[in-house]
Design goal:
It contains 1 helix and no strands. The chain has about 150 residues and is mainly alpha-helical.
Length: about 150
């Protein structure tokens, strides 16, 4: 009987051992599959995160390019405005210089005309005075002769 009981216990131990190994193998297989699935999910998430980061970087690059182009356009407009204002200022200075030259010419012409007129009056006055002196001298000579 001892042998029967020991044989039964041994059979029970062996069957439990085989069942435990099978359960361990099944659990290991399940854990491996779960690990593979987790790795696949993590890979997909990393891929999605990488694509999102690339999209964000591309968007930022586009925004930076647009901002640079806008700054370039504004700088160009400011330069054109400054050039226009400088050109206008140069034209104003040129016009003022031309007016000053024309005014100086006009003043010079008036001065020359005034000097000519004064010279003519002086010549006419001198002639008149000479004529008067001559007439007076002739009258005086005539009176002396008488």
């Amino acid at each position: 009987m001892k042998k029967v009981i020991l044989s039964a216990v041994m059979m029970l131990a062996l069957s439990t051992s085989f069942i435990s190994c099978r359960e361990t193998e099944d659990k290991t297989k399940e854990a491996t599959e779960a690990t593979e699935e987790a790795i696949d999910n993590a890979g997909e998430e990393l891929k999605d995160m990488g694509e999102d980061a690339a999209d964000k970087a591309k968007e930022m690059g586009t925004d930076m390019k647009d901002a640079g182009n806008k700054a370039l356009e504004e700088t160009k407009e400011l330069g054109e405005d400054a050039a226009t204002k400088i050109k206008e200022a140069g034209t104003d200075v040129k016009d003022a210089g031309t007016k000053a030259v024309n005014d100086a010419k006009e003043l010079g012409t008036k001065t020359v005309d005034g000097a000519k007129e004064l010279g003519t009056k002086a010549v006419d006055g001198a002639k008149a005075a000479g004529t008067e002196v001559k007439t007076s001298a002739e009258e005086a000579a005539a009176k002396i002769k008488q």
